[in-house]
Specification:
It is a single chain. By secondary structure, this protein is of the alpha+beta class. It is about 50% helix and about 10% strand. It contains 11 helices and 7 strands. It has a 5-stranded mixed sheet with strand order 5-4-3-6-7. The protein has a two-stranded antiparallel sheet with strand order 1-2. Strand 4 and strand 5 form a beta hairpin. Helix 3 runs parallel beside helix 5. It is globular and about 50 Å long.
């Protein structure tokens, strides 16, 4: 488990360094650009990442010192403070807050990375370090794309993060997908990704779930792994879909899959 934590924490560091280098070059007009998140400009995405880093660090510290999770008022106070910041303050604050979180993860020794359990206050049981860090990696990586796509429509998810995120892609799938999007038609798809190469199955029926690749799929989706991940979070508009994405079979279309995964 420590090896999994190591990989995720390394991806958090490379992601932080990459986004920080981009953010430090943004001016006021850049920060006000529409991001890949429909309701936020670039500064608001950075505000979300910065406040999330603060809240995540508090959860980690609460597990380390035994004080436990903060109450809901703490989160509200953090969000309110970031909401009140100017765009420039959000950008600068993001860099500092995320550095503090990533550095704290990096400072965990091997035994702590293996044994620590963190009570988030809203899940039925505490989670381990790879799960908590993986949730942050997911949030961070997708919102980094939201920032980058404001300047480059061909932006892709960070390669260092794609493998770990693919490993955990089924974690929240049932919550973010719409099983009713195909009007009750059960569909079994084979998903085949590149960079990294993986193959697995997707079932859309009474629920949406991942599993083994079906022997006789109704359709086969072939795509870069980073686009598959973006598909599942609603970051899949045709303008952001590379030409290497293919779907064979008549059971579903790409637009059908976009309806299954409308985003948050």
């Amino acid at each position: 488990m420590s090896e999994r934590a190591d990989r995720i924490i390394a991806a958090l560091r490379s992601g932080h360094d990459h986004l920080t280098s981009l953010v430090r070059g943004l001016d006021a007009a850049d920060l006000g650009r529409q991001s890949g998140a429909a309701e936020w400009d670039v500064s608001q995405v950075l505000s979300h990442l910065g406040s999330g880093a603060e809240i995540g660090l508090a959860a980690l510290e609460g597990a380390l010192d035994g004080t436990g999770p903060k109450d809901g008022d703490f989160n509200k106070s953090v969000w309110a403070r970031w909401d009140a910041m100017s765009p420039k303050e959000r950008a600068e604050g993001f860099v500092a807050a995320d550095e503090a979180l990533v550095s704290r993860y990096e400072g965990l020794d091997a035994q702590t990375r293996e044994d620590l359990r963190i009570d988030l206050g809203f899940l039925p049981m505490p989670v381990d370090v790879p799960t908590l860090a993986g949730l942050r990696l997911s949030e961070f990586t997708f919102h980094t794309w939201d920032v980058e796509v404001a300047f480059d429509p061909a932006a892709a998810l960070a390669p260092d993060a794609t493998g770990p995120l693919l490993d955990q892609s089924g974690l929240l799938l049932g919550r973010i997908a719409r099983a009713d999007a195909l009007d009750g038609r059960p569909v079994h798809l084979a998903i085949r990704t590149t960079a990294p190469e993986r193959s697995f199955g997707l079932v859309v029926g009474e629920a949406v779930a991942l599993g083994d690749e079906p022997a006789r799929p109704d359709a086969v989706l072939s795509a870069p792994a980073e686009w598959w991940l973006r598909l599942t979070t609603g970051r899949h508009a045709p303008a952001y879909t590379p030409t290497s994405v293919t779907l064979t079979g008549d059971a579903v279309t790409l637009d059908d899959l976009r309806r299954v995964f409308p985003g948050f």
